[in-house]
Structures are given as C-alpha cells and as structure tokens.
C-alpha cells in the first residue's frame, strides 16, 4: 500500500513523479479540490436517484416523458449560442487520449476531434495523467511523438477543433480521495483539462469544450451546469464560455432531451446519439421486461424502429432549440484487404447517408481511413451549409414513448451467442491490460459495444430465451460455450499472445457478471479494480 500524500483537501495514493508534477500543480489541485468539495455530495445523490428510478422500471413501469417539466417542453426558447469554431462539425473523429492517436486525430480530414477519457480509454493512472499532458501539449501546439522506427509525428497547420470527453458520473478516480472516498473521475478529468487549457484555447478563438457521457436525467444536466458556472467564476470567465455536447446514450435520458438542453442552455451546443451505450442502456433499463430482450448484436442496427425513433427525436428536439444534432459511431473499421475494405466503406456510407437524410448536422468516425467517405456524404447533404439546423421534418413531428420502447426484432443464434462471448472476453482482457479500444473481428470495440455483448447473454439466461435452433440459454450452456470459446480465442491469437495475456482473469470476470442474478451496472466498475 503506497503512502498517501495530502494536497489541498485531497489524498493522493500515487507518488508525484515527473508527469504528475506537470499536471497536478498546486493551483490545479486547489481547483480540483474546490470542485470535489462542492460537487461530490450532490453527485452522490444523483447516483442514488438513478437507483430509485431504476427500481420503478424493475417493478414494471416503463420510462416515459415527464409532466413536471411541461412548461419547458411547451414554451419556445433556444440554447444560448454556438461558438464559431463549432458551427461546422460534419465529421468528428474520436479516440483515446494517447499521444500518437491525438496527433493523428487532430491531423485527420475532420472538423473536430473528440479526445476520450471514457468509452475508449481504460483509465489507469498513467494513461489518465499522460492523457492530460497530451491534450495540454496539443492545445499549446507543441505535441510531438517519435515511434519505434523513428517516424516523427507533429501537428499539421489548422488541426481539428478539440473536444474533451470526461468520464461518466459513475466512475471513480481511485487514486485521489476526499474524506476517505475515491473522487468522481468526471471531476478529475474536467478540472484538469479546463484548468490547464482554457487560457490557450480562448487565446486562439476556441474554448474549453466538453462531451458529457451517459447522462440519465435533467438533474444531472443541471449539476453539470453548476459545475461549469463554478469553473467560469473561479477563472473569472463570462457565463457560457464552457461549451458542452451531451451524449444521449441512456434510455432514461431520451425522455428528457428538452429538459437537458434547457438546464444546460448557457453551456450546451448539441446532443449526440451515442448509439452503443444507448443499446446497452435499453437492455439494462428494461432488464426485467421479458418482451424487450434483444436479438443477436448485428441485428440491432439504426434501422430498427426503436433506434430510428431515438435518432429522429433527438434531431427534432435539437433543431427546435437551435442545437446541433450529432450522429453516432458506425463500428466498422477499415481493412487492409481491398475487397473487405470496399464492403466496410459501403456499410459506413449507408449508415451515414441515413443520418444525414434524417437531419443530423454531423457524425462520428472511429478511424481516419473513414474520413473521406463520410465527409463526402455530409458535404453532399449539406451543400453550401455548414449544418442543417433548419431541418424540421414533418414525418418526425410525433415520436411517441411507444416507438422509443418498441421491441427489437431479430434472431438469437448460437453463433451470435458465441460471438458475444469471444468479443466480451477479448475486450475485457484488453481493458484490464490498459487498452480501452481494440479492433476485434473488423469492428471497433470499446466499453459501450462490449457492454452489449455481455449484457445480451445475461438477459438471454435471465429470461430463459431459446436460440433459433431450439437450445435453451442457461448458465450451464453459457459456461460450456465460455470454455469452448476460450479455446477458439487461444487458437486465433496463438499460444504466445494468449499465455502472455490476462484471458483467464477476463473469462473469470465474464463468468461472474453473466451468471449472477443481479445485472451489474457497468463492466468497467469491477474492471477498474483490476486496473493499475
Ligand atoms: C461507442 C463509442 O464511444 S465510440 C467512441 C470511442 N471509440 C473510439 O474512439 C474509437 C477510436 N478508434 C481506435 O481506437 C482505433 O481506430 C481502433 C482501435 C478501432 C483500431 O486501431 P488500429 O488497429 O491501430 O488501426 P490501424 O492499424 O488501421 O491504424 C492505422 C493508423 O491510423 C491511426 N488511427 C486509427 N484510429 C485512429 C483514431 N481514432 N484517431 C487517430 N488515429 C487513429 C493509428 O494510430 C495508425 O496510425 P499510424 O499509421 O501512424 O501508426
Ligand atoms: O459513446 C458513444 C456510444 O455510442 O456509446
Ligand atoms: Mg458511450
């Protein structure tokens, strides 16, 4: 057990080496400490509220629009303003805050780079601290990187606009404590990125911009609004300097989009369809509803009625309030095989064409190799415009709770179940080894996509579903497949890679969380205990 260092009102379990000293400066820690003291108790209450809301759904209620906020929904108002450099977001690349990736992403043919401390980052201490250094150097324009073969990476002129995605409210930063408890990871990421970069960002006519993940209610939006206002006052900045885009990626939040925009109206510039977490949240929120069990993962596409309704309602809600409606991530990544790559580009193109047609103002890509294809789709849809805030489609006028909760059609197959097992094990193994985003079977896998794989199986077991060949999904069947799929993974990856990895630990975690009666909230919570 390492010795605790006390700074300001916070305890640090890690020695302050060269990197920590750069980021955890006395002034930055004072600011972080102020935020933690002011906002941790209310953050804890918000997490308790999530449990209370879920209990009602578990007892049979369905999530729904709420009447207590009718005045917000019925009245006409707009969000405050959108800064000039956020008026064209037609293609945004995302990626973890690793040094080479940060440079490649900022140099990609995109408008925005979403630098990620969340779904694509396994937040071990070193990565989190280095991530802050990487972003600070990127903002200052001094970032560079030399790879093993001597290739030098540097920023090109006119890099993409930077937006930082902080960890979700549920994730702790275990290496920093306040009153004996781990502090919220979201405050850690927000405080340090804001503190070290706001001056340089504003000096170049940009600003401290954030993506906020996994929000579940407008009360959480209000909490963030207070955090932002506190930070602005602390730094003596005008109200509305900090700007945020909120991911609508939980089932509860889709019913409160107007309210989220309203409570963050000084600070918000848009909403984003975080489709993968949204699917995961649909499974998790409706976990006791046996008629809402999902089929194989590949059947759950944006053309499913419940996902189409979600995307169209988000666009309609945003445009009415003058906010950007950002599309989500197609998980296909480029392949070195020319034929396979053609297929990938076609799939991504089709997905993005649907988003652009529905009225999204821009979208996400996971890899620079997709930029040109997606840019072409949005260039065509936007024409001379930089966004399509003007789009209000008549056919989307009435989107109901029933549509948002529509059951999802498709088969549950043995191959689908086995694929879920292989993906979940390989992803968990990568995550507990410190890698939060990996290519698996030609798809980008991150914390959100892997959650779908592991919760699908839990749900199939829990509700005693049968596979298309008539097999009943049970714990013994799952355990047998888990053992068999471990052998498949071992064969696919080779003995050396397999034995050097943490596959046994990953499989043990997968076995535990899939067979226990309670569906655990987030894979990354027990995963974090296995991370440095
Ligand atoms: C559900 C959600 O939350 S989505 C948002 C979170 N997910 C993400 O951000 C996904 C980000 N993407 C990635 O991490 C990667 O693309 C992966 C892991 C999926 C695939 O990575 P790799 O296997 O390394 O891809 P590949 O070998 O084809 O990379 C080729 C080059 O592109 C770079 N690259 C790939 N993806 C990215 C990216 N997202 N940003 C910047 N550079 C990238 C690689 O660093 C590599 O650079 P190099 O040639 O200079 O060495
Ligand atoms: O964060 C994005 C998602 O799809 O989840
Ligand atoms: Mg997500």
TrEMBL record:
Pathway: Carbohydrate metabolism; glyoxylate cycle; (S)-malate from isocitrate: step 2/2
Domain Malate synthase TIM barrel: start-end pairs: 161-406
SUPFAM superfamilies the record matches: Malate synthase G (SSF51645)
Top-level EC class as recorded in UniProt: transferase
Catalysed conversion reaction: glyoxylate + acetyl-CoA + H2O = (S)-malate + CoA + H(+)
E.C. number(s) listed in UniProt: 2.3.3.9
Domain Malate synthase N-terminal as annotated: residue spans: 17-70
Keyword Acyltransferase attributed: yes
Record protein name field: Malate synthase
Cited PANTHER family: MALATE SYNTHASE, MALATE SYNTHASE 1-RELATED
Domain annotation Malate synthase C-terminal: ranges: 411-530
Species of origin: Rahnella inusitata
Family per record: Belongs to the malate synthase family.
Xref: Pfam families: MS_C, MS_N, MS_TIM-barrel
Keyword field: Acyltransferase, Glyoxylate bypass, Transferase, Tricarboxylic acid cycle
InterPro entries: Malate_synth_C_sf (IPR044856), Malate_synth_sf (IPR011076), Malate_synthA (IPR006252), Malate_synthase_CS (IPR019830), Malate_synthase_TIM (IPR001465), MS_C (IPR048355), MS_N (IPR048356), MS_N_TIM-barrel_dom (IPR046363)
An MF annotation (GO) of this entry: malate synthase activity
